[in-house]
Amino acid sequence: MQSLEPPPPPPYDIIILGASGFTGKYVVREALKFLNSPSSSLKSLALAGRDPSKLTRTLQWAAHPSQPPPIAILTADTSDPPSLHRLCSHTKLILNCVGPFRLFGDPVVAACVRSGCDYLDISGEPEFMERMEAKYHEQAVETGSLVVSACGFDSVPAEMGLMFNSRQWIAPAVPNRVEAYLSLESDKRIVGNFGTYESAVLGMANAQKLQELRRSRPKRARPAIPGPPPPKGSIIESQKKIGLWAVKLPSADSIVVRRTLSILRENPHGLPGINESPEQIEKREAFWSTVKPAHFGVKLGSKSLLGIFRFITVGMFIGLFSGTTLGRWLLLKFPSVFSVGWFKKKGPSEEEVKSASFKMWFVGHGFSDNSLLSRGNVKPDTEIITRVTGPEIGYLTTPIILVQCALIVLCQRENLPKGGVFPPGIVFGSTDLQQRLQENGISFDVVSRSALPSYPV
Ligand SMILES: NC(=O)c1ccc[n+]([C@@H]2O[C@H](COP(=O)([O-])OP(=O)(O)OC[C@H]3O[C@@H](n4cnc5c(N)ncnc54)[C@H](OP(=O)(O)O)[C@@H]3O)[C@@H](O)[C@H]2O)c1
User: Fold this and answer.
1) Has residue 191 got a pLDDT over 80?
2) Nearest atom of ligand 1 to the alpha carbon of 196
3) H or E stretch covering 196
4) Pocket flag, ligand 1, residue 20 (CB < 6 Å)
5) For position 59, which CATH number holds?
6) Is 18 among the domain residues?
7) Residue 75 and residue 87: Cα distance in Å, rounded?
8) What single DSSP character describes residue 10?
9) Is 121 near ligand 1, meaning CB less than 6 Å away?
């Protein structure tokens, strides 16, 4: 006779995989703040990776100046599937910090999906994310594994920031387009670690794979956006209202946001949770009824035109060189040279991390009254500017976001979809993520609302 006893819970709430990496160690430091604190759902944590002695040093660094807490160190390698299956059987949730994800992510997602364990990562690689969705979504729905990539600076500020802007448009007002302008600031140098640079170079080198993948899949529903498509605009733009020069940023953000808006089109009330209370269902539906889709793009801003030319130079180097084996070798061998000092093999110093911050401005254009649109082709007559600000993007903001998403998975699992591969906005948008980010140093503000001169076209 079969036992009716439910299986015992796994020993760890969370396992951080790739904890010894540059970003991983900051994720460990952030997670320790919440381990066993009275109101936290994080009661047990383990670190995993290839090299136990490196992981032990990571734990010492992350706990400093306190004594490291007694945390399990587990050995796992993404090229060794049984080691990943062991991890999955020991935890509710894996936080994956092993990148580039296009090289190392697939076996980790596969192991989680097979075992029904939940998975979050900090990937900023659109082709990886869409490939995981194509390959594992159906199976993840069945096994109850929730798989969410891009739970870092890529792409939560963009997702939550767009929603925050779009919710400021109170009916009958509607947004038409929101342009995000990212400004990175520091008293010292702005530096990123090699891992992010390598992921960007390999992403650019394989850009056509994303197009091939999309062509091989059924077309997604397009969000229904009121009004005309946005104008093309110039390559370099001067945004006087926020005091920035800006150039288009080919980041993952706009792709991830578009995936969330497409899923919202297919599920206008958001994604139902496993076991929501009637109040929770009402809250979720009320939230999503206030999110209005808009065309969305991201630009990188700088106070000086010279800064913009530096961005363009780096973009041109990566664009030109990443297409050939020799070019990629040069880019990866000399990161500092080809990124004009923005990426270093050893990453930024702690001082450089501490002194950096970001501002992401969301400039929304739309219509004061939806009914204006029925009068024919009119231009937006209203502008709403909002802003998301926070500390350094890669090693402070990313860990804050990843850990808060993880805590939501631990304590609000009943309100989240049973399983599936999703972008972060559609999973966490209607939870208390924004409030949690605000409590942890990432703020959301309304900057201005103004009327624009409107002309019939
Ligand atoms: N979303 C965002 O905004 C954001 C921010 C920061 C970083 N990231 C992404 O995070 C990723 C990591 O970046 P990083 O700078 O932290 O890189 P990193 O310092 O090179 O760290 C990579 C980690 O992966 C581990 N690893 C490599 N191969 C492995 C394998 N076969 N099995 C198990 N572990 C393996 C490494 O372990 P060892 O220590 O044993 O070598 C290390 O712990 C990149 O893809 C980057 O783009 C995203």
Assistant:
1) yes
2) 47
3) helix 194-205
4) yes
5) 3.40.50.720
6) yes
7) 9
8) P
9) no
* 137 and 207 housed in the same domain: no
CA–CA dist 110, 131 (Å, integer): 12
Cβ pair 340, 310 in contact under 8 A: yes
Each residue's pLDDT tens digit, 101-150: 999 999 999 999 999 999 999 999 999 999 999 999 999 999 999 999 99
pLDDT interval class at 456 (50, 70, 90): very low
Domain membership flag for residue 443: yes
- Of 233 and 269, the structure prediction assigns the larger pLDDT to 269
Which protein residue's CA is at the shortest distance from atom 24 of ligand 1? 98
Cα of first residue to Cα of last residue in the chain, in angstroms, is 75
The mean pLDDT value for 347-372 works out to 94
- The domain tally of the chain equals 2
Residues 109, 178: one domain? no
Tokens of 42: 């994080």
How many Å lie between the centroid of ligand 1 and the Cα of residue 60? 19
- CB of 351 closer than 6 angstroms to any ligand 1 atom: no
* Inside any domain, residue 410: no
Q: Of 129, 148, 167, which marks where a domain is finished?
A: 148
User: Which pLDDT tens digit goes with each residue over 420-433?
Assistant: 999 999 999 999 99
In a domain, 404, yes or no: no
